[in-house]
Structures are given as C-alpha cells and as structure tokens.
C-alpha cells in the first residue's frame, strides 16, 4: 500500500470532509430517498433516482476519503529545516526572464491549490525543485514552455 504524503492541515481537511459526508450528507440523502419512495411508483420517480445517484456519489467519496486517510503519511513541516527543497517547503522563486517572484509551498496531491500558493509534489514545478538548494537555478517545462527560476529562499512554516 503506497503512502500518501500530506501536511497536518491537509489531513485535517480530509477528516472534516469525511465527517461532514458521514454525519450530515448521508442522513440528508437517506431522508430524501425515503421521501421520494413515499411518492409511489419508483420506476418513474425522478426524485428517487436522483437521490439514489447522489447517495452513490457520496458513498464513493466517503470510501475514497477513508482510503486516503488510512494511507496518509502526515509530515510535520514545522520539524523540517535546511536549504534543500523537499516536501512541505515554502520556496520563493524568481523567474529569470521576467524577474517575477513566486512563492509556492510543496504539498500533497489532495492539498494542491495554485491560487493559494500550494503546488502538488507531483507537479512539474515541484519535481524540478525537489533536492535543489537555495541559490540554484532550475529549468521547468510548463504548459507555457520552458521557464528558468532561481531559488531565492527555502523556508519551513
């Protein structure tokens, strides 16, 4: 069974979603199915079929969340240090062409949100950064073409 690296906040977010789906969504869907069933003929009951499909989707997501949580390897970023980029690092990069500065935290696949400055450990940018040190120049192939970045800061927060 392959472990899934994630930060403590990513693990907590998955736990919260699982709890919500089990304690709020599941009972709500069961009630909707019961109400739709009370309307009579199930073969032509669109409400019933929609509720059953919603139940299937919810149960599938619950199973997915339980699997991810059981395989989670929570990494405490606060205990990490050094100038080498690895999982959990917050890296400040400067685009060598445009001088534009970017700050990315390298997180697990489930936690990635580019708008919030979090990129997946499996993203092209993160893969290029892993193992590099502060001051290194890194070339990354992005959808917009090859880009060169300089690592100006590695911090752990």
Automatic annotation (TrEMBL):
Entry protein name: Transcription elongation factor GreA
Q: Which HAMAP family match?
A: GreA_GreB
Where would you find the membrane-spanning parts of this chain? none
Give the organism, scientific name.
Aquabacter spiritensis
Recorded GO MF terms: DNA binding; RNA polymerase binding; translation elongation factor activity
> Start and end of every Transcription elongation factor GreA/GreB N-terminal domain?
4-74
Checking Gene3D superfamilies in the record gives: Transcription elongation factor, GreA/GreB, C-terminal domain (3.10.50.30), Transcription elongation factor, GreA/GreB, N-terminal domain (1.10.287.180)
The family database entries (Pfam families) matched by this protein are listed as: GreA_GreB, GreA_GreB_N
Q: What UniProt keywords apply to this chain's record, in alphabetical order?
A: DNA-binding, Elongation factor, Protein biosynthesis, Transcription, Transcription regulation
């Amino acid at each position: 069974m392959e472990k899934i690296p994630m930060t403590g906040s990513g693990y907590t977010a998955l736990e919260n979603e699982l709890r919500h789906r089990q304690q709020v969504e599941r009972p709500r869907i069961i009630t909707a199915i019961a109400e739709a069933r009370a309307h009579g003929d199930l073969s032509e009951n669109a409400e019933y079929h929609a509720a059953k499909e919603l139940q299937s989707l919810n149960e599938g997501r619950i199973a997915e969340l339980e699997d991810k949580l059981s395989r989670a390897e929570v990494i405490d970023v606060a205990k990490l240090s050094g100038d080498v980029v690895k999982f959990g690092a917050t890296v400040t990069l400067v685009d060598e062409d445009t001088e534009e500065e970017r700050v990315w935290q390298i997180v697990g696949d489930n936690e990635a949100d580019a708008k919030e400055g979090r990129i997946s450990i499996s993203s092209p940018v993160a893969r290029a950064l892993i193992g590099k040190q502060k001051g290194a120049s890194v070339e990354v192939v992005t959808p917009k073409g090859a880009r060169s970045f300089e690592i100006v800061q590695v911090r752990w927060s």
